[in-house]
Specification:
This protein is of the alpha+beta class. Helix content is about 45%, strand content about 25%. The chain has one domain: Ribosomal Protein L31e, Chain: W (Roll). It has 4 helices and 4 strands; from the N terminus they run H-E-H-E-H-E-E-H. The chain has a 4-stranded mixed β-sheet.
């Protein structure tokens, strides 16, 4: 791997609608597996870690009603892919926009 591949970050929107084909009591488990499969396919790495915040966001509405879509940021560090929620950096950019509006 080259040096640029080691610290690469990508943002994806994952469609999780197919989880509704599984029984209700397994939907959120299936969503977690779908996110891991997506990360393996796109980042070409078997070592996948899901961030605790993203996990809480997925489980927030219980086992039978996970989100239909989720926006994630995948970063490759030390041969481990970390999948985290993209909303964190979205909030940072919103704060910067608000500061720019206040200064004008």
């Amino acid at each position: 791997m080259s040096k640029s591949d080691e610290n690469s970050t990508h943002v994806y929107t994952i469609n999780l609608g197919k989880a509704w084909l599984t029984p209700q009591y397994r939907r959120t488990d299936r969503v977690i597996n779908m996110i891991k499969e997506f990360a393996k396919r796109h980042m070409k790495n078997e070592n996948i870690k899901i961030d605790q915040e993203l996990n809480k966001e997925i489980w927030k509405q219980g086992k039978t009603n996970p989100p239909r879509k989720v926006r994630v940021r995948m970063s490759l560090d030390d041969n481990v892919v970390l999948v985290s929620s993209y909303q964190e950096s979205l909030k940072e950019s919103e704060v910067k926009k608000d500061e720019n509006k206040d200064s004008t």
